[in-house]
Design a protein that fits this description.
The complex is a heterotrimer.
Chain A: H1 5-23, H2 26-54, E1 57-60, E2 71-74, H3 76-103, H4 109-128, H5 132-151, H6 157-187, H7 192-198, H8 207-222, H9 231-238, H10 241-266, H11 269-275, H12 278-298, H13 303-323, H14 327-358, H15 369-372, H16 374-388, H17 394-408, H18 412-438, H19 452-470, H20 473-487
Antiparallel strand pairs in A: 1-2
Helix pairs in contact in A: 1-2, 1-4, 2-3, 2-4, 3-4, 3-10, 3-14, 3-19, 3-20, 4-5, 4-10, 5-6, 5-10, 6-8, 6-9, 8-10, 9-10, 9-13, 10-13, 10-14, 12-13, 12-18, 13-14, 13-18, 14-16, 14-17, 14-19, 14-20, 16-18, 16-19, 17-18, 17-19
Chain B: H1 2-5, H2 7-25, H3 29-51, H4 73-104, H5 109-116
Chain C: H1 3-23, H2 28-47, H3 50-54, E1 60-67, E2 70-75, H4 78-104, H5 110-129, H6 133-151, H7 157-189, H8 206-219, H9 231-234, H10 240-267, H11 269-274, H12 276-298, H13 302-322, H14 326-357, H15 373-387, H16 394-407, H17 411-437, H18 455-473, H19 476-485
Antiparallel strand pairs in C: 1-2
Helix pairs in contact in C: 1-2, 1-5, 2-4, 4-5, 4-10, 4-14, 4-18, 4-19, 5-6, 5-10, 6-7, 6-10, 7-8, 8-12, 10-13, 10-14, 12-13, 12-17, 13-14, 13-17, 14-15, 14-16, 14-18, 14-19, 15-17, 15-18, 16-17
The chains are: A mainly alpha, B mainly alpha, C mainly alpha.
Chain lengths: 491, 117, 491
């Protein structure tokens, strides 16, 4: 059983998804989703512990040995991502029960949960597989179900947002296929480990840089790096609250993981950053993303859209860490994957609670809301503090490492940009806080605190923000190991 | 001769550009999907072309024959998957277009932007 | 009780007290009794640490390692103990005062007020006992954030604007400058622990170290060195007990305390004296001293005048630290205590005038001394201490600061101290003199006979005024503690 854990992690949700659609009873579908999510969480946790203790796990699918068969490889880097996906799914599903009943028509709820499980499966699959074409397949599973999930939003603009995402996402995925195809032409293999071995031995040629470029553009489109982020704000704004919370904390993270996997494991840091000078492209884009997107966030009136732009800025932090291409920078980037999932998850879930009671997340509808929904708004403040990077929250730990990594290379202007980003976060977080705390509640408003099940899930993530901000030794330990594995130092 | 030898690749590039252009330049949502399809088709051809070896035959093992050249089946198999994905994407995209038409009463991008407000 | 337990309890007791206060919100008497008991308990715990220091020990409590090499830890040293003493003692007095003031002034949301007050004290004690820059920064930000609800207590538009300035300045300076300085220090020295003699000596060029010093001095916005002083006058919209304890004692002293700590334990006096930046910053502090006094002149609102006086006096302490010699540090450290007692008396008096006579402006206080003799008597004593005249405690710290300037050979700075004292003589003594000897304005309705503030407030005022005089006769404890900070020859 435990030997087959890597494949069961993916297969069990994959099999569960059709059942969730077929039972056609909303609460049963929900229970299936809950079971799949918790299964993924616990299995990912078990895998991470095993990997940290005994080193990488290789699992040959159907016993077809790599490089001919498809291989699943689990090392600290992707076990970490698996855990993030599993954890967020496990927290979001209990929350989804009531939120989805409010935001999605009853008849579509079973389909919603089926798509939700598939999306999670796809994300888990991307992370766990050691085969590049398999990456594409899982990428499309997760993307197609994500398009469907976003289109379920109540606002009709959810449809156009989903369509826009579908077009841009498909272009990104097709670019990735082209890149993979060109790699296959040159090497004759699709196995990541095999590719990593063969690529450096090739004669200098033009095909590999072209493949590299297609992959870079495709993946950065998927992870919404500025200026390829255009699909993201609408998609996050109009999707159902649960979907936003889930996708914002996982989908872009998995794409960042893909970036890491391709550039460090497969192409190798010396090719990506030495010959191709990727850092010269990524770093300026990341810095611009941090500054401009934080400023754009300040001017939003819809809080979900505000948080969406903030996400684009935060993706800038992750990419910035990666572009430093040092052990410390990578640690910072990988750490921020997890930390950002915690804070954005908490924030979007708090907004989901507001959506549930108020029916809108526009800032003018939130006058004095702290009086009616004290716990929800307290959760928002706590998540906001984490985004700002106040000490004893996870946001601080990320910033601590990121600035350290920048100073290590003498790049103090980069450190300053990171800090200015924090200050801009103060502005956009406080904009909401002021409305919720300093305005009077509308006289005719009859608003109650959100239901307990939603609050508990939200606060679980809020407390995780503080827990891992105070005792970060576990998270930083894993992130450091993951960075070492990606850079090829140590195991 | 070189140009002719790479004939398939020229086709790939031509289709890719046509698809990509349609995708970007057209405001009609259905035409955009058609553009996406053409774009994806060019990639299918790319994969099929690179699996083909001149003079190669289908990769079925022939008993006793030593000198047979086989085409590489893997890209062809891969692209079957990609075709399935492409069909699914088109289906989802078109169903979205139907829903958009119901909700906005149009499938022209600029008209949607006008009514969305 | 072991020293570790004492440390833990002196930080945790106010937090625990805060939550009991929250639970007892419906019973004001019980709520305020709990605050008083907690205050007494905290003072008792803090004083229990004194014997350890007298034996030359430095009690330490490691809580956990946040990231490798950086600990959340407390270590009690004499300067911190002095600060904790002052904060916890004055907390009790302020609570007594607040009982009279808040009830007399019929303030709303009193439970929230006492709750955040207690948390702020916990933050201040956390700052006082922190063993390294990280812990200090964490509690520094806790103090910033938990005083925000106190500053904006009235939740009016004016309070909201003031709150923006308050958070804006304090968070901007701390995140953009102080955090950068801390991470830079960690990058250079490999540690952020406070160590006798400093940790930065010899790690980088004088230019880099000077830049870090500048970042620290301006990054500690709570020390209100110009041009980052705007938050302090803004904070005066808060109820008077908040201005008295937090914006004359806990918050601002946490700022200058940080600068003293950084000077002595991060840079070390030898290194500090050798840096060119130190001299420049000393003049920046001197400019703040003079400008603060001059602006205080122009303010007719009593609390605003006191606020600018505080800005001026805080820079005395900053200057003391930057003189980089033994006398400067002793004088600066003692001034933390002396100024605290003097200034809190002044604020108590200002609040008493507001509650009893409903006057805010000095020009409208003419002749009020005859109706409120005790209040203005206490104001007079407090003013003497701030100016530095016997028989008030402030004369000692000013004496040592003066010696420090001479030791440093900076006669110009001595002149600055003198001029500022002369200015203080005018702008502070003007208030009681006019109150006692001038005729009341025509339109003022003054009650016949004595009409003082509520008894509880009067008691508090008498206690601090007496203590101010007492500190002139017995400055021994403060002096003893400060000489332990900078070991050296006898006075």
């Amino acid at each position: 059983m435990s030997h087959h854990l890597p494949v069961l992690l993916v297969v069990i949700p994959l099999v569960a998804a059709p059942f969730a659609a077929l039972v056609n009873r909303p609460r049963v579908s929900w229970a299936i989703a809950l079971g799949s999510a918790w299964w993924a969480f616990l299995a990912a946790f078990a895998l991470l512990r095993q990997v940290m203790a005994d080193g990488p796990i290789h699992y040959a699918l159907g016993d077809w040995a790599a490089p001919y068969g498809i291989e699943y490889v689990v090392d600290p880097a992707n076990a970490w991502v698996l855990l993030i996906v599993g954890m967020i799914a496990a927290v979001v599903t209990p929350y989804a029960l009531l939120s989805i009943e409010r935001e999605v028509p009853d008849a579509r709820i079973p389909l919603f949960y089926a798509a939700f499980i598939l999306c999670m499966t796809g994300l888990l699959g991307i992370a766990i597989t050691g085969d590049v074409f398999n990456v594409f397949v899982f990428l499309e599973i997760s993307s197609l179900s994500a398009y469907a999930l976003i289109a379920l939003g109540r606002d009709r603009r959810a449809l156009t947002a989903s369509y826009q995402y579908l077009i841009m996402g498909s272009v990104g995925a097709t670019f990735i296929v082209i890149g993979i195809g060109l790699l296959y032409v040159m090497t004759g293999t699709l196995n990541m480990a095999d590719l990593a071995q063969i690529l450096p031995e090739l004669e200098p040629n033009r095909t590999i840089p072209v493949a590299f470029t297609f992959l870079t553009v495709g993946i950065t489109l998927k992870l919404a790096l500025f200026p390829l982020h255009l699909w993201l704000p609408n998609a996050y704004t109009y999707a159902p609250s649960v979907v936003t919370a889930f996708i914002a904390s996982t989908a872009t993270k998995v794409a960042v993981y893909l970036l890491l996997r391709f550039f460090f494991t497969i192409f190798g840091a010396s090719f990506s950053f030495g010959e191709m000078q990727l850092d010269k492209v990524l770093m300026p884009l990341a810095l611009v993303a941090i500054l401009t997107m934080s400023i754009v966030a300040i001017y939003q009136d819809n809080v979900k859209r505000l948080l969406a732009y903030s996400s684009v800025a935060q993706i800038g932090y992750m990419v910035l860490g990666i572009s430093l291409a040092s052990a410390l920078g990578l640690t910072a980037g990988i750490l921020h994957l997890f930390n950002h999932a915690l804070m954005k998850g908490a924030l979007f879930m708090a907004m989901g609670c507001v959506m549930y009671r108020v029916g809108s997340v526009r800032i003018e509808r939130m006058n004095g809301l702290a009086r009616a929904m004290p716990w929800t708004m307290a959760a928002f403040v706590a998540g906001g503090l984490s985004i700002i990077g106040v000490p004893l929250t996870v946001g601080f730990i990320s910033k601590w490492y990121l600035i350290q990594a920048a100073l290590e290379q003498g790049l103090w202007p980069v450190a300053v940009v990171v800090l200015v980003g924090s200050l801009l976060a103060v502005v956009y977080v406080w904009k909401v806080v002021e409305v919720a705390y300093f305005r009077d509640l509308d006289a005719d408003a009859d608003i109650q605190e959100a239901p307990l099940s939603m609050l508990i899930a939200t606060w679980a993530l809020v407390l995780a923000n503080f827990w891992f901000g105070i005792d970060a030794s576990a998270t930083t330990g894993v992130a450091r190991r993951a960075a070492e594995v990606l850079l090829g130092v140590g195991s | 001769m070189i140009g002719l030898g790479l004939f398939n690749y020229w086709v790939v590039i031509f289709l890719m550009m046509v698809g990509f252009y349609t995708l970007i330049a057209r405001g009609n949502l259905v035409k955009k999907i058609i553009g996406l399809n053409i774009f994806q088709t060019s990639v299918f051809i790319l994969y099929i072309t690179m699996g083909k070896i001149a003079g190669g035959t289908a990769p079925i093992f022939v008993q006793g024959e030593q000198e047979v050249v086989y085409s590489n089946p893997i890209p062809h198999v891969l692209i079957l998957t990609a075709i399935v994905v492409g069909v699914a994407t088109s289906a989802l995209g078109l169903s979205l277009v139907v829903r958009i038409n119901e909700a906005f009463g149009t499938i022209e991008e600029d008209e949607i932007e006008d009514t969305a407000l | 009780m072991s020293s570790g337990l004492l440390i833990a309890l002196s930080v945790l007791l106010p937090v625990a007290g805060a939550f009991v206060v929250l639970a007892l919100g419906k019973w004001p008497n019980a709520r305020e009794a709990v605050t008083l008991i907690t205050g007494g308990g905290t003072l008792w715990l803090v004083s229990g640490l004194l014997p350890y220091l007298r034996e030359g020990a430095r009690p330490r409590l490691d809580i956990l390692e946040v990231v490798p090499g950086v600990q959340l830890a407390f270590e009690v040293e004499p300067l911190g103990l002095l600060f904790a003493f002052v904060a916890s003692f004055l907390w009790i007095v302020t609570t007594i005062y607040a009982i009279g003031y808040m009830r007399g002034h019929e303030e709303e949301n009193q439970t929230r007020f006492y709750f955040f007050f207690a948390i702020a004290i916990a933050g201040a004690i956390g700052v006082a006992f922190s063993a390294n820059l990280f812990t200090l920064f964490a509690f520094y930000e806790v103090l910033t954030l938990c005083t925000f609800p106190l500053v904006t207590h009235h939740q009016t538009d004016e309070a909201r604007r003031a709150g923006r300035v308050y958070l804006g300045v304090l968070l901007t300076t701390s995140i953009a400058f102080q955090l950068l300085a801390i991470i830079w220090t960690w990058q250079l020295a490999g540690t952020v622990e406070f160590t006798q003699g400093g940790i930065l000596a010899g790690t980088a060029s004088a230019g880099v170290l000077g830049a870090i010093l500048v970042l620290f001095v301006f990054g500690v916005g709570k020390a209100a060195v110009m041009p980052f002083h705007r938050w302090l006058p803004a904070a005066m919209v808060a109820p008077t007990p908040v201005s008295a304890l937090l914006h004359a004692v806990a918050v601002v002293k946490a700022g200058v305390f940080t600068i003293l700590k950084v000077s002595v334990y991060v840079f070390g006096l030898d290194l500090l004296g050798a840096l060119a930046a130190t001299a420049w910053l000393a003049w920046a502090a001197a400019a703040t001293i003079i400008l603060g006094s001059l602006i205080a002149f122009t303010k007719d609102n009593l609390k605003a005048r006191l606020a600018y006086s505080t800005i001026s006096q805080l820079s005395y302490i900053v200057l003391g630290a930057l003189l980089a010699n033994r006398w400067g540090v002793i004088g600066g450290g003692m001034h933390i205590a002396m100024h605290a007692f003097g200034k809190i008396t002044l604020f108590f008096a200002a609040g008493a005038i507001l509650v009893a006579a409903h006057e805010k402006d000095i020009s409208r206080m003419h002749g009020l001394g005859r109706t409120m003799p005790i209040t203005f008597g206490a104001f007079f004593i407090g003013a003497l201490s701030i100016i530095g005249l016997p028989p008030a405690g402030g004369s000692w710290s000013k004496w040592f600061l003066g010696m420090g300037t001479l030791e440093a050979g900076q006669v110009g700075l001595l002149a600055v101290l003198m001029v500022s004292s002369l200015l203080g003589l005018y702008y502070l003594l003007e208030v009681p003199v006019k109150a006692f000897f001038f005729k009341p304005p025509e339109d003022a309705h003054r009650p016949e006979g004595i009409h003082e503030a509520p008894t509880a407030s009067l008691i508090a005022m008498i206690v601090t005024a007496t203590a101010t005089i007492g500190l002139f006769a017995y400055p021994d404890l403060a002096y003893e503690l400060m000489s332990m900070v900078v070991p050296g020859g006898a006075p």
